[in-house]
User: What shape does this take?
Amino acid sequence: MAYEGWLAAAFSTPIVLLYPLFLVIFGRNHMTLIVMGCIPGAIPIAIQTRQGLLGVSKTLLNVGRSFNVSERDMFRKIMLPSAVPTIFTGIRIGVMYTLVNIVAIEYLIDFGGLGRIVSQMYDNFSIPETYAAIVAVILVSTFFYWGFGRVEKWLRPV
Amino acid sequence: MAQAGVIKGTVPAVSSAERSFDGRVSRIRLLTCVGLIALWEVVATLGSYGILYNDVVPHIWHIVIAVFYELISASFYRDFGMTFAAHSVGFISGASIAVLVGIWLGTSKLIREAMLPYLNAIGSTPKIIFLPIIFLMFGVGIESKMAKGAMSAFFPVVFTTTLGMMLINPVLIRVGRTFNLNKWQMITKIYMPAMVNPVITGFRLGVAITVIGVLVAELKFADGGLGYRLGIYYEQFQIAPMYAVIVLIFALAAAANSGMTKLQDRVNRHMAPTTSKGKKARASASGGLGVVN
Assistant: This one.
């Protein structure tokens, strides 16, 4: 409750812009990429997990209570399973956000993987290669999107 | 969070209990704020003695002074104006195209089914990767930022508009059919009023994402703008002004976001009957948020 508004605010802030800060803290290495991918990925998952746990149906909770389930079992056996679909939505959003942020930072600082390739090719003015690298990024992110959609469908009880 | 859920579920809202709960909430907030500031200052002090992250974390008063200097310097307003112009032109053009495309996709099932895979594929890629193409087409001036803004704004708006179109109460559409409205009348009399809420949701997401898009483009190559300013400060290792620009950007983004939220609330109150459908659209829209960056 206390942090709810802050999480939502953090979700809408352009965290990518903090990259100079992370660069000076962690240096220009993979640590920066990992940390900058971690933060924007974690926020939507936290928001969705909260929403999933709050949205547990009252009936289920009442059933648990009438069976005199302990608080811990209530969480493990009732709240968590019924929140899984919502949490998984959060995970999918988080994965896409992480991908977006990491590619963006790679592109901005010319370091790392796909984003660096695009940036380098553009700097060399080798246009066909730039387009090829862009297509590669599109393919990768489409694959992620599609793959996580499949996993989500597979995990969903219904 | 689990505990919060349990407490909310079991304790009925008694006014005194609620008040003490509110008090606890604000106490936790205050403590967190104080804790963060204290942590920051500890790191800053350690840094000024060269122990930890030398000079990376300036003292808070340095940042406050830097914010003040930014606010009284003329070049800040020039950069701000450039960013603002790029943002508004990009957002308005991108969003208006997106609304039209969204209406088109929403009304015609054939087109929607045919186009959706492509939209999803491009919508889920990081838009920043198209920056080289945009730079090639528009140069590195403000035009490329406008184009980037339009591109960023397009996808959230198109998704929410299409979704809103699909989720319109079928009763309303049947009423329109009964009155034998033609397609144009259907759009202006039935679809548009029912669509206001999801479209505004899309606008809200779009504004936030356009800010990011424009600033990132400015960070890469630019001749002005807040992102450019940030990059310059970073390259010259002027840490306090860099933080100041970040703080100001965050403040502006938050202001834009809260303005859009207020607008949305107002529209919601106006259009009370459509909100049950609109809410569903909003939930799914935020669910698809990862797709639209």
Remarks:
- The first helix of chain A runs from residue 4 to 12.
- The CA atoms of residues 28 and 114 of chain A lie 16 Å apart.
- The radius of gyration of chain A is 20 Å.
